[in-house]
């Protein structure tokens, strides 16, 4: 309230008082603003830890023409006089300037001072920080503002890990740095100097300075006090949670436990257990240690708020971030020093200079007068008390003024952390971005198929591999070892979403086309599917679905060798264009190689099965044809045997083919379909039986016919027999030659109409190079030369006989004997002296020993170097050795017959395990593999034999040995096969005791089969002495053919150690057999 004695005070007198008495010397408040003469009158200040300060100041001036805009952002200095006569500075920047009014020639202005940090809230930015610590990020933000340079420092006690990805998105720098500091447990305060203020960022109260003087008394404030004091003091306790628990999920370690819990250690009385559980997002912390720190930060923020102390008084040295010692307070005198030390967390100050003009100036709207009056009343000060030093008479006397402060503190011994008052921005929805990578690359990804992107809002990115962190890509399906993989390529536009709206957690959820990346199939909407692009090329792979009405089509295409599978309605397609009709059904084609493999059998049939009904291997039409063929072959074979000709031994295989085509498999207990809602129920479907092949046959069947044509050669190779059965005719036509090379015998039997063998030109030769030749006819036997002679010559004897009479030519003598008349008629009878005729006889060829090349390969075609091998020859001898570096070896001087080759372990495996030559013959082989788990194999002139870790040989009949097999398997003395040429009859096999029973059974079975064969052919009666007769092969003179004949050890996988027989046996026939 104004004093009435001042009501008639003239403006000229007021202005005169301003000129005479308004000096800043010895005043409570001083104010400095460059280029301006402004006297501070009233001051209200707000300070808090981790908050910008705000000082509002009423100033007076004689000038009313000061441009307000000239004051904005100017540095200003407030000085507060201390009890010792010195001054404490408060510096800031002018944020707001206002002209409150004029009274008596005096102009009142109001200025608001803030720190430079507050100016960071004026802007807004979006940018990305990668692999930087929070300190480096904050410093990078500050260094982007010229006003911040040199005005901040860090005073830290802890280390901080680098953040792989940290995004500031559409938020001010002020909000961004505050958010980061709150997350990391950092806080800040301001220190003031004579010319400027400095932002101090710290993580420990131990770094906070003490105020000067540090000791502050609790005492009633009076005008006679030489020291400032606190006149009000009290504690405030609030219940807080007792536990903080955090959880996160780290996709790099999905099974790693991530739960963190921290309990309070502060004594807060008898409080119920309360917990703050939070899931702040995925990979919020990478490890347990980091999680504990973040949880402790939150818990310490809660513990700090649990107990606070508030005070008020006139202590002018107090400032936020400083600590002091409270003295002369009864509640704190009994404890140790930590009970009396307090950290100032926030304060509000009210100050007024005692100026003469204040006593008669009216209150202007917006001035700080009202706030100061409220502060006085809150401090219990009565302005109506004439004895009070705050009465306006003091202003008239130009006194010092007054200063009031309210503070909030906590004990210095407790940690301080700011609460999370600055939340992260929440992304409003998905965004699009462009996939980026190193220059010149088309694909840039890692082991998790993550990619990097350039966000459209990122003006600092360089569209390279440093534009973002690795972003995971959502796929249609994803799991360990299975799922879908479509890695976004550089340049593609992708859809990026954010987990829980967190800008630090981007995730690619899709891809979109744009003006540069346009779809291959467009406009008509009929074509859909997938199409890839060759890395650094223009080719592609694609799966196209064509949904044109009544022209449904699917194409699976690889541009390499134009390899395609076309299904349905086939047309030409070029990009987006549907072209001409090509056919219907399916087409599997390639410009390169092709292979069709089915481990359990393969059916290729043109018998119809309309509507996709029926069983997969429905071979009933084919079975009927095979059954008919077997019946024909069986009847003709029986007829041949009845006429002493060779039986069709392969008819049993033909019957087996028919029988194997009637196999069934599946579960016969149920054939019901289930349409359940669960996998367990649905899995009960798919039962019943279906056709199958009992053995892995390749079945070709057609109701119209099968045609095989080539401009070159057609080859049929069988391990056992080749059967050709026709209900009517078998026709062979050769433009040049028809050549047959047979290892055992040639047998032709004709039921009716005889045999015709004609040579229109050229000589007809028939030779038995190592045995007899018999020509027999039930009726007449004619030998006729229509234009030349008939020569009959023999090295030993020529015998012509009929009806008991005979003519014998032997040893140069001629015998003519007859039981009846010898009739010799002629125009002349010449019985001259002895003479002879030397007739040239053909020298029949003999075969010579030959060589056999071995080559041992893995399944991937690489050689097996240094592998040991052992070869069992036809004469019973054994050769062994080591393959060279190319996996090859050559066996020289081989005798007539088959060769059985064993390969041992990969030598690299032998290096790891000692391996000796096998002393016994194991039955079940184990297969060596390469380091890449590729099954070993062998190929070459010795045939495609497999490789075994342990040998498992088998003994098979060699078709060229007319006298039976003379060789024996190792360690199997007495094991052999019968010889049809042995005069004493075929011996039964002797099975030694050290031979495994299953091997002995197979040997015996083979021997008995041989005996049956001998009995059927009646060789002992018809061809006596065959066992001691040479057998040579007339056709094979040039060495061993490369294609082998395999044995039939059906319980041995891949016929791994089967006898390798050479159909020509160039090694020569054995001269003598025992």
From TrEMBL:
Residues 444-513 form the Gp5/Type VI secretion system Vgr protein OB-fold domain. Residues 534-640 form the Putative type VI secretion system Rhs element associated Vgr domain. Residues 652-689, 910-998, 1018-1074 are annotated as: Disordered. Transmembrane segments: none annotated. It holds the Pfam family Phage_GPD. Residues 652-667, 1048-1057 have a biased composition (Basic and acidic residues). Residues 687-834 form the DUF2345 domain. It comes from the Bacteria. Belongs to the VgrG protein family. This is Type VI secretion system tip protein VgrG.
């Amino acid at each position: 309230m104004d004093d009435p004695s001042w009501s008639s005070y003239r403006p000229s007198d007021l202005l005169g008082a301003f000129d005479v008495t308004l000096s800043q010397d010895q005043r409570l408040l001083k104010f400095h603003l460059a280029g301006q003469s402004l006297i501070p009158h009233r001051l209200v200040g707000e300070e808090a830890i981790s908050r910008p300060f705000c000082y509002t100041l009423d100033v007076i001036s004689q000038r009313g023409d000061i441009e307000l805009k000239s004051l904005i952002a100017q540095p200003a200095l407030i000085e507060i006089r201390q009890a010792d006569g010195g001054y404490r500075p408060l510096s800031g920047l002018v944020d707001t300037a206002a002209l409150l009014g004029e009274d008596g020639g005096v102009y009142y202005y109001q200025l608001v001072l803030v720190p430079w940090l507050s100016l960071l809230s004026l802007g807004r930015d979006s940018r990305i920080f990668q692999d930087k610590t929070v300190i480096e990020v904050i410093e990078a933000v500050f260094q982007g503002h010229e006003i911040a340079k040199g005005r901040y420092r860090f005073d830290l006690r802890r280390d901080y890990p680098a953040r792989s990805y940290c995004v500031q998105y559409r938020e001010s720098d002020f909000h961004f740095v505050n958010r980061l500091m709150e997350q990391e447990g950092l806080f800040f305060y301001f220190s003031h100097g004579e010319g400027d203020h400095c932002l101090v960022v710290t993580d420990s109260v131990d770094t906070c300075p003490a105020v000067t003087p540090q000791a502050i008394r609790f005492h009633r404030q009076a005008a006679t006090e030489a020291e400032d004091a606190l006149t009000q003091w009290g504690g405030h306790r609030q219940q807080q949670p007792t536990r903080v628990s955090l959880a996160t999920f780290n996709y790099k370690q999905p099974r790693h436990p991530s739960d963190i819990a921290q309990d309070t250690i502060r004594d807060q009385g008898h409080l119920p257990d309360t917990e703050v559980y939070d899931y702040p997002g995925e990979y919020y912390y990478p490890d347990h240690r980091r999680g504990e720190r973040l949880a402790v930060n939150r818990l310490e923020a809660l513990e700090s708020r649990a107990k606070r102390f508030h005070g008020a008084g006139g202590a002018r040295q107090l400032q936020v971030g400083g600590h002091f010692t409270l003295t002369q307070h009864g509640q704190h005198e009994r404890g140790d020093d930590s009970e009396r030390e307090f950290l100032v967390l926030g304060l509000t100050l009210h100050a007024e200079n005692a100026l003469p003009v204040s006593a008669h100036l009216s209150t202007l709207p917006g001035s700080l007068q009202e706030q100061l009056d409220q502060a006085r009343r809150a401090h219990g000060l009565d302005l109506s008390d004439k004895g009070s030093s705050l009465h306006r008479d003091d202003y008239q006397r130009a006194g010092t003024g007054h200063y009031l402060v309210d503070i909030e503190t906590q004990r210095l011994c407790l940690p301080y952390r700011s609460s999370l008052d600055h939340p992260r921005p929440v992304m409003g929805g998905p965004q699009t971005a462009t996939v980026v990578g190193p220059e010149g690359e088309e694909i840039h990804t890692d082991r998790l198929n993550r990619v990097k992107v350039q966000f459209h809002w990122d003006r600092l990115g360089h569209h390279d591999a440093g534009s973002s962190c690795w972003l995971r890509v959502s796929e249609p399906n994803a799991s360990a070892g299975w799922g879908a993989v479509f890695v976004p390529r550089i340049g593609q536009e992708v859809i990026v979403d954010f987990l829980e709206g967190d800008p630090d957690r981007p995730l690619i959820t899709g891809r979109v086309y744009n003006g540069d990346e346009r779809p291959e199939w467009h406009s008509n909407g009929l074509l859909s599917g997938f199409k890839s692009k060759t890395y650094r090329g223009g080719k592609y792979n694609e799966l196209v679905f064509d949904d044109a009405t009544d022209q449904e089509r699917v194409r699976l295409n690889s541009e390499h060798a134009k390899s395609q599978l076309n299904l349905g309605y086939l047309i030409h397609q070029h990009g987006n264009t549907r072209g001409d009709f090509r056919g219907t059904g399916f087409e599997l084609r390639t410009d390169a190689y092709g292979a069709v493999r089915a481990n359990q059998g393969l059916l290729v049939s043109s018998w119809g099965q309309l509507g996709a009904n029926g069983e997969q291997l429905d071979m009933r039409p084919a079975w009927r044809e095979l059954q008919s063929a077997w019946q024909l072959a069986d009847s003709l074979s029986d007829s041949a045997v009845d006429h002493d000709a060779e039986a069709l031994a392969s008819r049993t295989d033909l019957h087996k083919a028919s029988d194997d085509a009637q196999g069934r498999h599946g579960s016969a207990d149920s054939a019901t379909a289930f349409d359940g809602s669960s996998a367990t129920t649905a899995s009960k479907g798919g039962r019943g039986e279906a056709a199958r092949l009992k053995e892995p046959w390749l079945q070709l069947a057609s109701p119209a016919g099968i045609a095989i044509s080539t401009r070159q050669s057609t080859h049929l190779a069988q391990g056992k027999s080749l059967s050709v059965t026709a209900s009517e005719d078998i026709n062979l036509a050769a433009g040049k030659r028809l050549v047959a090379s047979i290892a055992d015998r040639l047998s032709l039997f004709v039921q009716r109409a005889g045999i015709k063998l004609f040579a229109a030109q050229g000589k007809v030769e028939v030779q038995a190079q190592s045995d007899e030749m018999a020509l027999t006819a039930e009726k007449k036997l004619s030998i006729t030369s229509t234009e030349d002679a008939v020569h009959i010559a023999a090295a030993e004897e020529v015998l012509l006989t009929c009806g008991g009479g005979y003519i014998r030519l032997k040893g140069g003598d001629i015998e003519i004997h007859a039981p009846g008349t010898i009739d010799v008629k002629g125009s002349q009878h010449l019985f001259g002296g002895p003479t002879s005729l030397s007739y040239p006889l053909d020298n029949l060829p003999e075969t010579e020993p030959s060589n056999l090349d071995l080559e041992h390969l893995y399944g991937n075609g690489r050689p097996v170097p240094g592998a040991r091998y052992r070869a069992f020859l036809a004469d019973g001898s054994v050769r062994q050795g080591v393959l060279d570096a190319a996996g090859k070896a050559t066996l020289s001087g081989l005798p007539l017959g088959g060769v059985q080759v064993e390969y041992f372990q990969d030598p690299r495996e032998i290096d790891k395990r000692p391996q000796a030559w096998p002393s016994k013959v194991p039955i079940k082989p184990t297969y060596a593999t390469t380091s890449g788990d590729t099954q070993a194999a062998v190929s070459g002139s010795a045939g495609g034999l497999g490789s075994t870790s342990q040998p498992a040989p088998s003994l098979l009949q060699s078709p060229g040995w007319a006298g039976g097999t003379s060789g024996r398997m190792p360690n199997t003395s007495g094991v052999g096969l019968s010889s049809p040429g042995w005069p004493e009859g075929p011996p039964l096999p002797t099975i030694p005791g050290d031979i495994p029973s299953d091997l002995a059974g197979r040997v015996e079975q083979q021997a008995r089969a041989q005996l049956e064969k001998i009995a059927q052919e009646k060789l002992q009666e018809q061809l006596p002495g065959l066992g001691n007769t040479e057998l040579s092969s007339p056709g094979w003179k040039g060495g061993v053919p490369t294609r082998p004949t395999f044995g039939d050890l059906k319980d041995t996988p891949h016929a791994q150690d089967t006898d390798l027989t050479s159909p020509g046996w160039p090694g020569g026939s054995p001269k003598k057999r025992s």
